[in-house]
Design the sequence.
């Protein structure tokens, strides 16, 4: 039906001719002949004001659309899992030969982590006073982190970076940093670093002294050489993405006692960061793990095994953080809606102001003063504000 | 026409008919905008009719609940006679050799295709071999063990089964029953050896406390000795079968609570994505194979309570009910259409009981612990968080009407602006043309 009319239009020589065609009978927007249209200064001002308002609205909407929105969803992890990677980089103030690194997990396995991780002798002083090293739960200046003040820079208030930053960081090549060279002297500390595959079950990763804890290996070590002061530069689960900060990264914990037990209790939450709707093509994702940690450390007596213990457990619920932007078409519709709304509102505003001026003017005219005549235009300008 | 004060406020001013022009371009714009309005309104209507499933995460506040485990697992190389299902949990509750609600189906040996053996023919056989024709004064000896509490004749062991129960209660190994007259009479050893090459499918449901626990399928009678859980493995080891038995298994089905209906699953979205809330049992149709009789499989299951509330369930809500007497399989399905079930995430682990490292899988650093019971173990843990999948309309009726107004108003306003631009542009063009001429 409609096509028929369109064809008719196509044959029409002059589309703007004010003829009484069939199509033109449909015109729901009758225009007034120019000679009947009056342009007023008040109307002009309203038009300008409206354009300014529309521009502001348009700009803010554009900015919001460009920034996109973050949605946090969750799901129970699918599939049968087997392994979980752990990445760590830790400096302990003891000689490498005196340390044992092992994992014991709920599946009954003992993982000889030491064989998979690299050991480098190093100097304690090079690590403990390095920049960015702080105690867990405190910032670099030693103040307690309360979690307040996130709202200033972070929209979501979760204390997280934006997803697009995380995703782009996640694509960077991962490599372990070099241990600073030892000049002459024998190092007093040991840097243990590398990645290791664990069973994806509850477990305990621990660094203990030779001859303490496990019966079979190593001879007994002199108690005076125990010092489990340590600096954790990296501790993360999943693929090694050094640029993502984890709660334990860059933390130091020192002790003067020989028998000291440091325990970290960690809950690992699988997390997927994605850019763009994951059901669409072209979205990028980073699959990683976050964790929550509590530290418990105390001096122990000589019957207890001293060391550094990381106890981890895996949460069944996976967190999915998506940063997405509306499709362009939806954005256009939104813009059109806003602009037309502003247009209509402006039109009404103009009429209202016009009416007010008129009513006030009439009252004044009927009152005492004749000197205020011609104030209607000024009144119009006043209502612009 | 009476001119009131409001006349000036008229937002819908009408132009006098004489001063109006109707143009072809205006007509086209009108038609196009009408099409757009129809199109968008249709979309809005669809949006209004759409039912969305909103997942919510809450802390599970239910208490004292029990949970159902539904399983269907095939063991092609362990006969039914040897297979035992035990459940234990941290509350101290133990269910040994679960029979109620669980059906064992004998499977043909793998060399014969492995199909199920018709159970009717089996029961026929069993009927003429039972010891019904015994002397009424007969009281079978229990061979030093205390008679079982549930014996048919108090103080006696009338059947081979009762002797075995008595032995199990005394925590003694039983073996094939050599020298036990009840068992010889019933040909227990022969029957056992007859079954040796068969497999077994175990299916059914059991009800457990909703606390941390484990259930396992292992060979032989099980009993608790102090706080040790022991299986009588004698018959498993002493087997005439070439290569021995092994815990090769296929999990056809494992779920905790009722299965969501298929149509509900569809609404929950694409199941191929790892992050949808599509209800899926990750262990369904998984298969593990080994030739080593000394092999142990462990599944670490984390259970997340999940409920599904369909649209309008509140109206039909009839209060919480907890019927412990209900048949297995009846749990979790409300008369209001709501479903209380559980999802789970799982990690699998396998090891040889001989210990050793995991160099076969490329992990020389991984040392397995030694000892234990061959079998398939499921240890489950309950998450404190609960997922609620709630069906909701995407929009309320008022929202729909508002959306409709926005569409009509917006489109018409924009169309008016376009039309006006075309009209004025046309006039300018005409003026230019007339100047040129």
Sequence:
């Amino acid at each position: 039906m409609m096509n028929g009319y369109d064809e008719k239009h196509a044959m029409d020589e002059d589309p703007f001719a004010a003829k009484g065609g069939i199509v033109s009978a449909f015109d729901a927007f009758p225009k007034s002949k120019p000679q009947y249209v009056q342009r007023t200064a008040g109307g002009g001002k309203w038009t300008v004001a409206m354009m300014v308002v529309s521009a502001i609205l348009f700009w803010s909407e554009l900015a919001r659309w460009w920034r996109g929105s973050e949605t946090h969803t969750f799901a129970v992890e699918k599939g049968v899992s087997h392994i979980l990677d752990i990445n760590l980089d830790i400096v302990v103030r003891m000689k490498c030969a005196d340390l044992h690194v092992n994992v014991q997990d709920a599946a009954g396995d003992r993982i000889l982590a030491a064989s998979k991780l690299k050991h480098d002798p190093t100097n304690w002083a090079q690590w403990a006073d390095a920049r960015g090293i702080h105690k867990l739960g405190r910032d670099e200046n030693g103040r307690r982190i309360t979690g307040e003040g996130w709202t200033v820079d972070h929209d979501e208030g979760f204390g997280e970076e934006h997803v697009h930053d995380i995703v782009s960081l996640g694509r960077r090549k991962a490599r372990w940093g070099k241990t600073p060279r030892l000049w002459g002297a024998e190092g007093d500390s040991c840097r243990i670093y590398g990645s290791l595959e664990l069973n994806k079950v509850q477990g305990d990763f621990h660094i203990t002294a030779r001859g303490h804890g496990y019966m079979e290996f190593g001879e007994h070590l002199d108690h005076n050489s125990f010092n489990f002061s340590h600096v954790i530069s990296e501790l993360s689960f999943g693929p090694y993405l050094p640029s993502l900060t984890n709660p334990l990264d860059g933390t130091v914990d020192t002790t003067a006692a020989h028998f000291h037990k440091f325990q970290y209790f960690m809950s690992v939450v699988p997390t997927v960061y994605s850019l763009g709707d994951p059901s669409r093509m072209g979205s990028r994702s980073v699959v990683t793990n976050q964790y929550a940690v509590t530290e418990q450390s105390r001096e122990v007596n000589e019957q207890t095994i001293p060391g550094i213990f990381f106890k981890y457990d895996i949460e069944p619920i996976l967190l999915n953080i998506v940063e997405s932007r509306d499709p362009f078409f939806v954005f256009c519709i939104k813009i059109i809606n806003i602009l037309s709304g502003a247009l209509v509102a402006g039109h009404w505003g103009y009429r209202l102001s016009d009416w007010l001026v008129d009513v006030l003017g009439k009252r004044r005219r009927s009152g005492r003063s004749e000197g205020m005549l011609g104030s209607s235009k000024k009144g119009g300008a006043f209502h612009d504000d | 026409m009476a001119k009131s004060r409001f006349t000036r406020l008229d937002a819908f001013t009408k132009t006098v008919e004489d001063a109006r022009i109707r143009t072809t371009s205006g007509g086209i714009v009108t038609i196009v905008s009408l099409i757009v309005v129809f199109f968008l309104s249709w979309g809005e209507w669809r949006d209004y009719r759409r039912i969305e499933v909103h997942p919510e995460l809450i802390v599970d506040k239910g208490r004292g609940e029990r949970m159902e485990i539904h399983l269907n697992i095939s063991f092609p190389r362990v006969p039914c006679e040897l297979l035992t299902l035990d459940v234990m949990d941290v509350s101290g509750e133990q269910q040994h050799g679960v029979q109620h609600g669980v059906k064992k189906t004998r499977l043909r040996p793998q060399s014969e295709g492995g199909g199920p053996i018709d159970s009717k023919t089996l029961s026929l056989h069993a009927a003429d071999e039972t010891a019904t024709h015994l002397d009424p004064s007969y009281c079978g000896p229990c061979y030093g063990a205390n008679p079982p509490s549930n014996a048919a004749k108090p103080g006696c062991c009338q059947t081979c089964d009762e002797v075995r129960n008595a032995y199990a209660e005394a925590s003694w190994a039983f073996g094939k029953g050599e020298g036990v007259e009840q068992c010889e009479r019933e040909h227990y050893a022969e029957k056992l050896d007859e079954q040796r090459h068969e497999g077994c499918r175990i299916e059914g449901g059991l009800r457990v406390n909703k606390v941390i626990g484990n259930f396992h399928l292992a060979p032989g009678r099980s009993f608790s000795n102090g706080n040790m859980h022991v299986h009588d493995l004698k018959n498993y080891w002493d087997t005439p079968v070439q290569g021995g038995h092994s815990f090769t298994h296929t999990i056809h089905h494992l779920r905790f609570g009722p299965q969501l209906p298929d149509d509900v699953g569809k609404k929950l979205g694409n199941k191929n994505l790892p992050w949808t809330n599509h209800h899926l049992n990750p262990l369904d149709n998984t298969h593990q194979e080994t030739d080593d009789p000394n092999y142990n499989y462990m599944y670490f299951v984390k259970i997340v309570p999940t409920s599904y509330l369909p649209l309008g369930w509140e109206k039909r809500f009839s209060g919480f009910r907890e019927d412990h007497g209900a048949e297995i399989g009846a749990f979790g399905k409300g008369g209001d259409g709501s479903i209380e079930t559980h999802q789970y995430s799982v990690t699998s682990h396998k090891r040889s009981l001989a210990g050793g490292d995991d160099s076969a899988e490329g992990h020389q650093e991984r040392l397995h612990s030694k000892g234990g019971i061959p079998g398939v173990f499921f240890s489950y843990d309950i998450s404190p968080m609960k997922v609620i999948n709630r069906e909701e309309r995407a929009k309320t009726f008022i929202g729909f009407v508002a959306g409709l107004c926005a569409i009509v108003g917006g489109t018409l306003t924009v169309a008016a602006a376009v039309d006006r631009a075309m009209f004025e542009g046309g006039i300018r063009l005409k003026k230019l043309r007339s100047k040129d001429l």
Confidence is low (pLDDT under 50) at residues 1-19, 148-159, 369-385 of chain A. Helices of chain A lie at 2-11, 41-67, 124-128, 163-170, 328-366, 376-382. Chain A touches chain B through 77 residues (CB under 8 Å).
